What does this fold into?
Amino acid sequence: MRFEQLEQFVALGNLIHFRQAAEQTQISTSALTRSIQTLEDEIGCELVKRSTRSVKLTEQGELFLKYCKTTLSELDLTKKTIKQSLFGRDNQKLIIGYTTQASSIVPVSCGQFLAQYPNVKIEMQLQDELELTRKLQLGEIDISVYLQSANSIVSDIHLPDQLVLFVSRNHPLANQDSIRKAELTQYPMYGCFSQSKQVQSMLNEAVDSLNKSTSVKIGNIEQVIDGLKNSNSFAIASIEHSKTIAQDPNLVFLKTNKALDREQLIVQTNHQVGSNAHINHLLELIEDAASSSSKQTVTY
It folds into this structure.
């Protein structure tokens, strides 16, 4: 009995389809059939009920499937333990997949993570939600992040994901469920510099769209925050300043079309939470970044 036979049986047990299981394990259907027959001969009982139309595991097959999964999981853990003992915990790679709607969260979180763990390699993959689900199930990515669609959005302010609006906690608009452009007309505006030319261009376009280009006051994040705390002004900044804003108890984000409570950031991992310090820390950073963008996070 070989480990690849266990992997082939798990594929068949999960998919209940010989051709699909053969494709997943990259062998021919006839080779998979012979592999299953060999397992049945070694174990001494029938594991799979076959017919021209269906495949079904026997009671013994269900028990053997659990054994296969446990054995392969222990094998994978042992491999990781050996690798860590040879190269250290920091020499590992994490693959994180995310949708376009989560692009304001994941790159920022990964950047913060790499600043603390420079020896850990991170690969980011931009995918649609269905592809993320498939890759997570197959173990091709470690974490998937996508934004659950929002319903009944009433804000008419359409900002890029890289930008946020915020005010002092005592501002008249601070506790509204959503903000409309007309409501901002009476309030002065601050704009915060961005180190990115591309994001700065977005900031300029957003200021124009809010009809504030002739009156906006520009400054760095400290100057903008000081200007907000004792006034009814509102401010716009890039997500590079989100953490600073979120950590200030005197400031709150305005809820625009991309920042409503109805939106949920769904974060999934194929790792057991609590058993991998790097995974846990990256998940925490993603949740922090989501909170900074006023998005509710569901992690599992």
About this structure: The mean pLDDT is 84. The first helix runs from residue 3 to 15. The first strand starts at residue 48 and ends at 50. The CA atoms of residues 128 and 240 lie 25 Å apart.
